[in-house]
Design brief:
Elements: H1 2-21, E1 47-52, E2 59-67, E3 72-78, E4 82-88, E5 90-95, E6 105-108, E7 112-115, E8 121-124, E9 129-137, E10 141-143
Antiparallel strand pairs: 1-2, 2-9, 3-8, 3-10, 4-7, 4-9, 5-6, 5-8
Amino acid sequence: MWSKLICAAALMSAALTARAAEPPVVALTPSQMKWSSQGALALPGLEQAPLIGAPDQPGPYTIRLKFPAGFKIAPHTHTDSREITILSGSWYTGYGEKVDPAVLKKLPAGSFYTEPAGVPHYVEVREPTVIQVSGTGPSGRKFVDPAAAE
């Protein structure tokens, strides 16, 4: 009998924990999104708008990032796996520890790609571009060559 009660209590506790981890209801129009040059993933020259959660906090997050033409990000990795959708413009990405312009893949608006945790990749933006990034924090960025972060 006690084992059944303990099992039921454990299941209820797990269900409550799972429910607490669920993101809240969010319904935003583009004009309600708050763009800022500050944030967990911001680099000089880009803007980000948090939609749900925060990349530097535990749990799921989704943000939008707005890049100007000519923006480049040197090879780097992330601590979490991420999913990216290109919302406008074109996004050029490649995987590896060294930039190789020959393997940059052009991803036009509507495209999707992944950045698995720990996999080095790099980016080039040739026109103003907006992407949406989802992952599970805490997230972070580590440049393959730390001097590239400066």
